[in-house]
Amino acid sequence: MVGRFYEDFTVGDTYRHPLGRTISETDNTWFTLLTMNTNQSHFNVDYAAKTPYGKLLVNSTLTVAIVTGLSVVDISQHAFANLGWDEIRMPNPVFVGDTIYARSTVLSMRESESRPYAGIVSCATTGFNQDGADVITWKRTVLVYKRGHGPA
User: Fold this and answer.
1) Which CDD domains match (predicted)?
2) Which pLDDT score, from 0 to 100, does residue 141 have?
């Protein structure tokens, strides 16, 4: 099975998302420039060497995007819409060359009052690096199709 419909979720279930993603310097530079982030700590090695980290720092919004993507197969493959990301925290930095993994726990679920073909699912997601250090956490809420109601 790829993805979950509303009926497939259970409060308390934890999913370790199956894929990991190593972040390259090209990924970081392109994403930073694409999003018009002018902080040189993401794309200027000389500048980054003079910061407390001493090396290129991965753009935090790239980390959000990658961890969201890693969770799609389990959380939002059959989503109608993302409703929000709350309480985003970044307890540790991400650097070029880090490999990011993710896991999510279902916090709550309820049927949609306005869309009878869908339900609302909230999850706590954590992204962590190859050493097991948490690099990002959040609560995410999605509107997920019920079985038999999504596009074919």
Assistant:
1) FkbR2
2) 98
The answer to the question of residue 152 being in a domain is no
Instruction: Give the closest residue to 102 by CA, choosing from 79, 145, 73.
Output: 73
Alpha carbon distance 17, 13 (integer Å) = 12
Q: What is the separation of C-alpha 69 from the centre of its chain, rounded to a whole number of angstroms?
A: 6
The CATH number linked to 77 is: 3.10.129.10
SS3 4: coil
pLDDT tens column, 102-147: 999 999 999 999 999 999 999 999 999 999 999 999 999 999 999 9
> Residue 103: inside a domain, yes or no?
yes
| Token pair recorded at residue 139 | 């609560």
Is 1 among the domain residues?
A: no
Range of the domain at 21: 6-145
Distance in angstroms (rounded) separating the CA atoms of residues 137 and 151: 30
- Total domain count, the chain: 1
* Separation between Cα atoms, residue 101 and residue 87, nearest integer Å: 19
